[in-house]
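Before the break, one more example. Copy the sequence into your notebook; we will annotate it together after we see the structure.
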Amino acid sequence: MRISPPAAGLAAIAAVVIFAGAAISIRPELSDATVGRDSMPDDGTRVATGALVAQLWLDQHPTPTAEPPTPAPPATASPTPTPSPTPSPTPTAKPKPKPKPKPKPIVYANTVAGARAYVRARIGIRQYNCINALWTRESKWNPRAGKLSSAYGIPQAFPGSKMAVFGSNWRTSPITQVKWGIWYVSDRYGSACVAWAFWQVHGWY
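Here is what the structure looks like once it is written out:
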């Protein structure tokens, strides 16, 4: 069992008092015969002597005063770090796509050879082969074949004045005549090869 310092001091004082009282009350072989009753200290003297001894001990052994607890330093709140703003990336200007140059339109010579090239470019080689066979039978690609008032020109339009919707030079222009001829077979038969197949059966289209 542990005894705290104040309790230990009180216990020591009590022991001294008891010891002093005992020392005063016990004398070696004293009796009424050798010492008169008046020479023996009474109870009051013994108590005073014990108190004096206890006081002397307390003066030499003062009770330690408990030091007040050291106050803990106040907790300091750590400052919250301010996040650095993230710099926004500078948008990179996208280069504008360069416009593709428009292909220059092909200018075909206003000749029979130019008219043949124009027809091939417009309807493709397969359909061209059919219309070539058809117009070779009709006019042999002669822009002046026939009569103006009847079948006339490379496609043998009937009458020839129908071709005026494609140009006022329909009488002499191979290009104007084949433009009308392509429109005619596409509108009436759907394609040059169907028109050629019809011609082979009927001899006209």
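Residues 1-5, 16-41 have pLDDT under 50 and may be disordered. The chain has five helices and no strands. Try to locate both features in your own notes.
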